[in-house]
């Protein structure tokens, strides 16, 4: 599959954009006219740069408001077009996007539109230019791809074809299966964009909120299947107008974009094979012109292997782990790294001498069936491999860096509760009794606002975690957006949080960062909280007002309410079961949670999140945040 | 008019919110339940704090999903309500907001809803509580205020009345004139919110985009006129859910909120008087229970008096002024401050010894008829007065600080081209010939994203500038939002720009700030540009590609195009006329523009803004931004 991307997707100058596209591995680009127009480089310079970067110039766009106009205006439009054709000859671009008329069309007649397009096609032919006519979703008379296709058919000129744009088609709820009916040679270009579900006017939705495939709500795999079946074999190009991508690093956005296409390509290949199988065709028996690459197939992760906390002084964090019932079961034989465990939950404490580093979650390990295959897949999806210094006889750990810089280790799932790398840790600790904690239930990672969509796609494509519904949680510093990503059986649960920008900015100025946490699952949270209190754990306090409201909402048994209140436990209930949980104080940028899921409760106590955030805010304000005591 | 505000409008803890409301001058507050629920302070503590701050607790809210339910659920809801009534007694709040049922209503029958509300009213009466029933715009069966009123009438209980919320009424396009038909004693509470025009689903619009009156598109003055005519005399309370306000300083947001009510109160008073006059009533002959305060009436400003640039080393800025044809006409007799002028344009260069300050626009002067009255009005609208050290015999200048910290001086309009304060400057410069520059055409100020709505309201309420349509301009660092604020005849034009957040963040980290500029009007921009080039002005370069596109779009006369291109002039044309302009290099955070408006062109060359932004970005990238040479 040939990959391409419109320069408007990225920030920076045209030159910076082109370098970023080449570095991310795109085969070609669409030149967005505005980017050329503001560039100090001549068309010849841009052509030479593209050649030196190995990028083809697949499309020049947009040419607006051409057809369906009076003769006067048509003459001016042809003059304007010819100037652009001559420019395109200098650039070395041979396909121009012609958008259906929005502003100046006055004649609602397919015959007139077609004959005007044919005239444009005749002029274009003299320059060796092909015209790809696209129905904008908000075109005045033409806003549907099948309508555009009828006009192209009427125009009946070899230099006039169609451009299909997934946003314009899917945003209007049109059925993309009609794509299969278009002759492949008349599909001159294809643009892809995904978008979140928003009940916003389609123009604003298109101009500000498009995202890369897999980051939104459209079924782009189905779209691609129709496209492949049509016999199309030209570039598949991203055209994403997004306010955030426009203002973040072009290098990073280009990688995110490329990842989306690699993943979409694989999913399309898989979906096609499934459908061929369903319809009784052998997957190999039906060949399409478009060649689809695949990735190593890997099973989804089966659990958390460990969480790692990095700190200069991890004393307070280790103290909290002890209070929660963890035992230090070993020290790395060569590094100042300790392994704490309780039941199936493992926390690695990585002490760093330099840097004055406040404790923070730095890595997490996931159990996977085939770590090298999983790592290879992630790297093919443009994840950055992580290299940690290791001695020759240490276990080779496969790891990649997530968009928020958390390191994700892909560990071998053993099934017997042991871990392959444990032998590097001596056994200097004795585990007392049966711990109440059983496993890591979920890990909550804060995300920079600029990289949220990228993170969702990263976790979904590389780790097969599926996004659940997102939530917005009020805090004293603004709304926190929370997006859970889950494996299908819930064994791996990540909660990605975006903190309010003001909070993030205060963090970058030396104020509080938005803290992250590890939540441990346990079999009896009341007993565990009692034990932790005896060991002196600093619980995050819960206001009395909360318990009054809880009682008004749930009419709890008096003994349960008394237990909850005396132990700073939070409570939630839904039709599936009950949820009891508590939080520790925050140390540096990390805190812990302990949860007990009763019956089939599958949530995270969302109604209680504002209570936690407010209580943490109170602690920061009163300056006691950094002390666990 | 009694003023109130819901705690949900502000960031911070309940205590911080209350202190901010009191400091801004509110008479009372609505306690938003969530704010109390997450507070470590008891209801009794909050009551005592309110009393000590002089705030009444006007409303407790929200009570959700009560009416139209099965008997079982009704019983649970009454239990829940009674717990809240008892809490309200402890708080000392006597009115509760009951929102129309969204989630649990199963009986679409006004008789059932009314009888259930009557039962709630009977229980509430035992606690001395009044219930204000409100139709949410997305209520399941009740989503219109007149429908809610019919149910209140049917309930027919003295403790059951109505709550009117401008958002819920106006967002659905309902006619607010029906308010006048509601008996005043049945209107238990009134909530106000404005909102921008958005074609978004009403729930998202309400939860994220509400703004304070005057910051959006609703006609809240008309709403208020109906309310006053109904005979209502209770609190007028702000209830604004806004993602930005939630994350910015509560003190500042509370002042912004109070300004909106003071201004709305005045406008309501003026509109009522106008309408009474139209209908033949004398303004004084009709009295309403609600007492409306007014402000000093002032005429709109008639022009720019000056712009001030502050700098440690203003040499490059003064060099550019000279190159543009300005003359230094005086030095302040006691301060290192110089006055430069050209035609009716004046620029004050204020040299500051300390601080390593890069040149920036620090103040602007506006010509007004009655400076003391204008300043008094601004201060009554909560603008911060500016105090500059001045000697006893210096002119007393009236000034206030705008939300972006620019100081706005209110100067006496003399009409003869002189200024009252000029005598403080000696006359050590000689003006050569007739300058081509005639006046300050507009000033472009960058705004922090957190304070944009506040800024629009500030300039509209204190300076009578009216917002024109806003625009979004693509730049290599993201979209720049631009909002022009104008006096009615265009003599004063401010362009407020919000830079992309990433750019702003880079600025706060020592990278480039988003620069501001002063645009000078001139009678012959081609002649001026030639003269400036002779004097060595560093023009902002304009790419050749731009001129090719210009030619394709406008088919300009070859001589004009040659003039434009050789002088780095930009061009625009619309049905009203033509616009020619050029930009200087940026020095520190300031640059200049020279514009020539031909015929009745009234815009700002919006299609050229991306060219400027890209060219400035190129200069920053290539590191030559700080040198004017």
From TrEMBL, chains A, B:
Mg(2+) binds at residues 442, 517, 593. Keywords: Carbohydrate metabolism, Isomerase, Lyase, Metal-binding. It comes from Arthrobacter sunyaminii. Belongs to the bacterial two-domain DSD family. One of its GO terms (biological process) is 3,4-dihydroxybenzoate biosynthetic process. It holds the Pfam family Glyoxalase_5. This is 3-dehydroshikimate dehydratase. It comes from the Bacteria. Residues 439-585 form the VOC domain. A divalent metal cation binds at residues 134, 165, 191, 239.
């Amino acid at each position: 599959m040939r990959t391409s991307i419109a320069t408007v997707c990225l920030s920076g100058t045209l030159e910076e954009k082109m370098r970023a596209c080449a570095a991310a591995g795109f085969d070609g680009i669409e030149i967005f006219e505005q980017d050329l127009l503001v560039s100090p480089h001549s068309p010849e310079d841009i052509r030479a740069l593209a050649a030196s970067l190995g990028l083809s110039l697949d499309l020049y766009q947009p040419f607006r408001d051409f057809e369906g106009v009076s003769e006067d205006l048509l003459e001016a439009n042809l003059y304007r077009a010819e100037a652009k054709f001559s420019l395109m000859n200098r650039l070395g671009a041979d396909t121009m996007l012609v958008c259906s008329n929005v502003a100046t069309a006055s004649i609602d007649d397919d015959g007139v539109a077609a004959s005007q397009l044919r005239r444009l096609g005749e002029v274009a032919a003299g320059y060796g230019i092909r015209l790809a006519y696209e129905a904008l979703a908000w075109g005045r008379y033409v806003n549907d791809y099948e309508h555009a296709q009828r006009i192209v058919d009427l125009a009946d000129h070899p230099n006039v074809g169609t451009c299909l744009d997934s946003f314009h088609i899917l945003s209007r709820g049109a059925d993309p299966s009609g794509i299969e009916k278009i002759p492949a040679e008349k599909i001159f270009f294809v643009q892809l964009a995904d978008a979140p579900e928003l009940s916003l006017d389609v123009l604003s939705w298109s101009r500000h909120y498009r995202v890369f495939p897999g980051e939104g709500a459209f079924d782009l795999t189905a779209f691609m299947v129709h496209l492949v079946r049509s016999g199309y074999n030209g570039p598949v190009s991203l055209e994403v107008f997004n306010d955030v991508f426009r203002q973040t690093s072009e290098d990073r956005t280009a990688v995110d974009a490329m990842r989306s296409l690699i993943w979409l390509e694989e999913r399309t290949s898989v979906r096609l094979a499934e459908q061929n199988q369903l319809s009784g065709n052998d997957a190999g028996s039906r060949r399409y012109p478009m060649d689809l690459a695949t990735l190593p197939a890997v099973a989804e992760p089966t659990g958390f292997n460990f969480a790692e906390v990095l700190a200069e002084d991890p004393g307070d964090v280790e103290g909290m782990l002890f209070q929660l019932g963890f035992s230090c079961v070993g020290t790395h034989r060569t590094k100042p790294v300790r392994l704490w465990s309780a039941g199936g939950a493992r926390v690695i404490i990585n002490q760093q001498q330099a840097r004055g580093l406040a404790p923070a979650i730095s890595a997490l390990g996931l159990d996977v069936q085939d770590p090298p295959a999983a790592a290879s897949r992630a790297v093919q999806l443009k994840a950055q491999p992580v290299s940690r210094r290791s001695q020759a006889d240490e276990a080779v750990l496969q790891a990649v860096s997530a968009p928020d810089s958390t390191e994700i280790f892909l560990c071998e799932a053993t099934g017997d509760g042991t871990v392959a790398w444990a032998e590097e840790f001596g056994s200097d600790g004795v585990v007392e009794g049966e711990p109440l904690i059983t496993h890591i239930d979920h890990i909550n990672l804060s995300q920079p606002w600029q990289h949220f969509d990228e993170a969702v796609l990263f976790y979904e494509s590389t780790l097969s975690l599926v996004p659940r519904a997102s939530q917005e949680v009020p805090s004293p510093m603004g709304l926190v957006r929370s997006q859970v990503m889950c494996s299908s059986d819930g064994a791996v649960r990540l909660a990605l949080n975006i903190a309010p920008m003001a909070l993030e900015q205060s963090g970058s100025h030396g104020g509080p960062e938005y803290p992250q946490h590890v939540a441990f699952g346990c079999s009896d949270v009341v007993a565990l909280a009692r034990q932790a209190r005896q060991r002196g754990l600093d619980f995050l306090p819960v206001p009395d007002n909360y318990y009054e409201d809880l009682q008004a909402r749930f009419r709890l048994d008096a003994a349960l309410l008394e237990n909850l209140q005396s132990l700073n436990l939070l409570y939630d209930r839904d039709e599936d079961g009950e949820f009891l949980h508590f939080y520790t104080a925050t140390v540096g940028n990390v805190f812990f949670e302990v949860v007990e899921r009763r019956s089939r409760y599958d949530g995270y106590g969302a109604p209680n999140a504002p209570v936690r955030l407010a209580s943490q805010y109170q602690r920061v304000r009163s300056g006691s945040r950094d002390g666990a005591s």
